[in-house]
Design brief:
The structure is a single chain. The protein has about 375 residues and is of the alpha+beta class. It is built from 16 helices and seven strands. Strands 4-1-6-5 form a four-stranded mixed β-sheet, with no helix packed on it. A three-stranded antiparallel β-sheet has the order 3-2-7, with no helix packed on it. Helix 2 crosses helix 12 and helix 9 packs across helix 12. It binds iron/sulfur cluster. Iron/sulfur cluster binds next to helix 10 and helix 13.
Length: about 375
């Protein structure tokens, strides 16, 4: 890899030898998607779109983006909103820390930068939830500053083009790929080049089935020439997942139900959910009834009528697989345990931000 970087370093770029970048941008002009955050240099809009598109496909993120910027069109409106409202607009997108960080960064900009987006890369990087990739995207797309973007698409394209074996999830890999990306980017064309290479990774050099036969870089692609495109990008760690077993109780008392707001460092911080019992393994309703947690929850609640129960469904998150069951239970008395929950009129439950898992349950009815 270092030999490659040295070789690229010695290329006569000052004389305009940006062949790869030229081919990427030519491809981009013909193939780019028409996206609402493309034709703007407003750093706020670019930032929101980049945060939404982390971990989210364009097709899924589009409606969220349009709703979000329609309700929060600028830093001031986002900083003035409650965290709960911002989470409600994010409901269903997952990775909710992104929404909390967006609002926190907007408040920070209101305080530290007079409500404006900072122009300097280091200042952008100092905002909550903004890493090197997002900072580079904002300053290059908004102001054409010469910072290379290195996201999953760029890692993939570069690792294949140059057959780079360094794992992309290693510190060394991150440094080397960033250096390589910088060497390929004409400094005066940062905006166009960065957008082009990202779009190329998203549409042409796909993770599973790259469209090599129609690729403008096929003659230069070292992985293709060696016949081992699938080998790249190299990763050192496989993601480990953890199984969890959730049992939700949709408790009905008169015209009310009960929610609580998740806190701490676990998933879905700030979102609301029904009373929950988590077990270490699969447990059916009879087993739950024997547990201490169930007794505490329903002690002195009178007769329980299990009206509807949804059997276990599988809900996959990035590092966890949740097996969740829902029980709709009518009670006769509001006991002491339930007084620590938020009592919500059943027809107002939609006003509360909830996880996608609970949203799907409520939709099913
Ligand atoms: S030839 Fe295939 S693997 Fe190589 S850059 Fe083009 S699409 Fe990607």
């Amino acid at each position: 890899m270092f030999a490659l970087i040295k070789q690229l370093d010695n290329m006569p770029k000052g004389n305009g030898d940006w062949t790869i970048s030229r081919e990427l941008t030519a491809w981009y002009q013909t193939n780019k998607r028409d996206l609402p955050w493309r034709d703007t240099d407003d750093p706020y809009i670019i930032w929101v779109s980049e945060i939404i598109l982390q971990q989210t496909r364009v097709a899924q993120g589009m409606d969220y983006f349009l709703r979000f910027v329609s309700r929060f069109p600028d830093i001031a409106s986002l900083a003035a909103a409650s965290e709960e409202e911002v989470l409600k607009y994010w409901q269903g997108l997952g990775y909710y820390s992104r929404a909390r960080n967006l609002r926190a960064a907007a408040c920070d900009m209101a305080e530290r930068f007079g409500g404006h987006f900072p122009v300097h890369y280091k200042e952008v990087l100092s905002l909550k939830g903004i890493g090197e990739y997002t900072a580079a995207a904002v300053v290059s797309f908004a102001w054409n500053q010469p910072y290379p973007v290195v996201d999953g698409n760029v890692f993939r394209v570069l690792s294949r083009l140059f057959a780079v074996d360094t794992p992309i999830d290693s510190t060394e890999g991150k440094k080397e790929f960033t250096r390589l990306a910088a060497l390929l980017m004409p400094p005066s064309e940062a905006r166009l080049h960065n957008q082009a290479i990202m779009e190329f990774g998203a549409l042409q050099c796909l993770p599973q089935n790259p469209a090599c036969p129609t690729c403008p870089l096929v003659c230069k692609c070292m992985a293709y020439q060696a016949g081992n495109v699938r080998r790249y990008p190299v990763k050192q760690h496989k993601t480990r997942t953890r199984d969890r077993y959730f049992h939700y109780f949709h408790i009905i008392y008169k015209n009310y139900t009960y929610l609580h707001r998740r806190s701490g460092k676990d998933i879905w911080t700030g979102l609301y959910e029904f009373p929950l019992i988590e077990t270490d393994a699969v447990a059916d309703f009879a087993e739950l009834q024997q547990s201490e947690a169930f007794r505490r929850l329903f002690n002195h609640a009178g007769r329980l009528t299990v009206a509807v129960s949804h059997p276990q469904t599988k809900h996959v998150l990035s590092h966890q697989i949740l097996y969740a069951a829902f029980y709709r239970i009518e009670i006769e008395e509001e006991n002491e345990a339930l007084q620590s929950y938020t009592r919500v009129p059943t027809d107002e439950i939609d006003n509360y931000p909830v996880s996608r898992l609970i949203h799907i349950y409520l939709e099913k009815g």
